[in-house]
Amino acid sequence: MNVSSERMTSPTQRRSPSDSSAAEDQRIATTIVRDSGSSKEIEESQADPCRGAWGNQIEFLLSTLGMAVGLGNIWRFPTRAYNNGGSAFLVPYVACALLFGLPAVYLEFLLGQYHRTTAPIIFRRFAPILQGVGWMAVAVSSLVAIYYIIIIGWSTVYMASIVMGHTSKWNRCGNSWNNAESCVDSGLQPLCASFNATGNETSPVWANLSSEGRGKFYIYLNTSCYDKVDLEFNKTKMIAATEQYFFDYVVKPTDGFLEFSSINFKSFFGMNACWLIVVLILWKGVGYMGKASYVIVTLPYFIIILLFFRGITLDGAEDGIYYYLGNPDWSKVFMPATWGEALKQLCFSLGIGYGGLIGMASFSKPNNNCFRDALIVIIGDTMMSLVGGAAVFSTLGFLAKKKGCSVAEVVNDGFSLAFVAFPEALGRMPLPELWSFLFFLMLFFLGISTEVAYVNVFCSSICDQFVNLRKRKWLVAVLWCLVLYVLGVVMVTDGGFYWFIMFDEYAAGVSSCCAVTAEVLIVAYVYGRRNQLADMKEMFGESKNKCTSWIGQHSPYFGFNWMFVTPVLGSILIVLASIRQYPYQTDENKPNMYPLAFDIVGWAVCLLPMALVPIFAFCAFVEFKRKGHDLRALFMKQRQLKSFGRIYQTMASKDRAKQKILPDREPWDDAPTGHQFVASPDFQSSSQSTRSERPSERSNYLNSAASVHSKTQ
């Protein structure tokens, strides 16, 4: 029978814990499993159509792949593998994927899919005092979205430059943006191949004739050939033409972090075009986002395969592949630094702790096999990294062969690999316009799919709390994109390049590690490992065989991992991400490039998401105090929790009595929501009375599962 919490029977009228029997506990458990199918059917039929849903599970899978697979797979993984043992790096990488990546991705999918809402509301229902943990993840994704779109904007600038015929110019030195005294034109280096063959060439007056290694390699610089040893002895600047193109034509930075004079209109218009595309994708909600994923997520895989096969057919490709995977250094496997690099690369690549995976899973069907999806995301992310790395290093091998140097001398990390080394190699291929355009188109799609997911995290979280906004989610998306746009405008100024570097260094490292570690700890120890496993059984049913019960979606490994392994690895990751050099970089000629303010502002940005945890805890305290709620409820599971009905059924009588202090609604609700308490059957009465009450108890369980736990469901 359904009665309000005010009419709950006293503890003395209910069965004491000592009266419970194994048979009764089994009856409750059997009822829960048997009724879970009905609960899911009711929940699906009563889902709010304004919230949106994926058209099918392929759209969900592609969208999550779009968020996980990003620019870091192309420009960070290859060089990290190269610097940490080559193919030997795969040992710690795969191990970390099984120990940390898969359990964390699977847990975020489970949370979103079961609770059917976004991270802030989920953690508020675990305990209102912890709502800030959900907002911490939202803040991380928002901070990354501010600077991530700048990179995508650069790729649009390069695509526009290709259309304007600049492919033949960014490898040359005779352009208006070049500094002839330091520009190195890789296409003219063959002119020095036979230089000083007779040994009669005159050396410059500043040359050190006693230096070792003279006469082996000459560089064409500013209309003359010079011995490389002499140039290094004289500390002569040698800057590749492609590097000058990027810094002096595309970016145009000033001399320091705090120096601003004008807007870089190339980057400005590129950023504008990208924000317009993001708004158009988010305008129609998650349904249109899923449709767009068919293009923006699948095309990068086709393009990278084309670039891979083109790369391995180039002269010198075998040298690049050998440096990448063919010369494993197994001693690196036993070095803690290598495992730290693998763990950092995996966490940042998969987007764990950003709130996006939870949010996107909340639009899935309740019985979707998200364990399979988590596996596919891990495998898809790893394959893009491996194939992308092979394409990159085969192309760098070709570039090294053309320049007459080793592969190690042309390897760059980060955006320098994408916007300096790779354009130089592509510009020297046959059909350079085609391959260059395909490469930057791939970067654009990899970036835009991730950017859309990051921006959508906040939009979905706000619309879940303010339900009236669901019909106007397009307006929320436009306004939020405008806010992020305004915050990011500083990065398209001439001094904004250093602000981009600062966000790239500080925005997501420590805070995302804290977010994912806090998520796992709260699920394991606040919500409860057994409750989480029961949620999985409710969604997927019992294991079909012993094999799947041990290595499938019900594996006991995940419960153990969430309690011990992932929290430990997450804590290690926080420490590793916090270690950095101070000051960030030093340049004797430009002491103001990275001043003390760079690190101060950077740490402020880094700590901002974590500061939301105590801020929202204080807000929850004020809210409970103002409304007269018992403050103990701040630390208790809320009745709006989807699994509360099931959890309440398994509570002892004294624990059930405590639940009456819980608020009957959430701050954004106008009427009571969530589980409605019932009196326990009086086991001192006749068996007939007991039989008549049990259907009501069972009906209440179904009602609580089918009810609108809050308007966010």
Automatic annotation (TrEMBL):
SUPFAM superfamilies reported in the protein's UniProt record: SNF-like
Q: Which organism is it from?
A: Caenorhabditis elegans
Q: Spell out the protein name for this chain.
A: Sodium-dependent nutrient amino acid transporter 1
Q: At which positions is Na(+) bound?
A: G66, A68, V69, N73, S349, L446
Q: Which PROSITE patterns match?
A: NA_NEUROTRAN_SYMP_3
Q: Which gene encodes it?
A: snf-9
Compositionally biased spans, kind Basic and acidic residues = 655-668
Which residue windows does the record flag with biased composition (Low complexity)? 680-690
Q: Which CDD domains match?
A: SLC6sbd (cd10324)
- Where along the sequence do coiled-coil regions lie? none
* GO BP field: amino acid transport; sodium ion transmembrane transport
| Disulfide bond entries | C173-C183
Could you tell me the superkingdom of the organism this chain comes from? Eukaryota
InterPro entries for this protein: Na/ntran_symport, SNS_sf
Task: Kindly give the Pfam families that the UniProt entry links to this protein.
Answer: SNF
Cell compartments where the protein resides: Membrane
Q: Which PANTHER family match?
A: SODIUM/CHLORIDE DEPENDENT TRANSPORTER (PTHR11616), TRANSPORTER (PTHR11616:SF322)
GO terms for MF: gamma-aminobutyric acid:sodium:chloride symporter activity; metal ion binding
Keyword annotations for this protein, in alphabetical order, are: Disulfide bond, Membrane, Metal-binding, Sodium, Symport, Transmembrane, Transmembrane helix, Transport
Positions of the UniProt region annotated as Disordered:
1-48, 655-713
Bias type Polar residues, positions: 1-23, 700-713
Q: Does the keyword Secreted apply?
A: no
Q: Which GO terms describe its cellular component?
A: neuron projection; plasma membrane
Ranges annotated as spanning the membrane = 60-78, 90-111, 132-154, 263-282, 294-312, 342-363, 375-400, 434-454, 474-500, 506-527, 560-580, 600-622
Lineage per the UniProt record: Eukaryota, Metazoa, Ecdysozoa, Nematoda, Chromadorea
Q: How does it sit in the membrane?
A: Multi-pass membrane protein
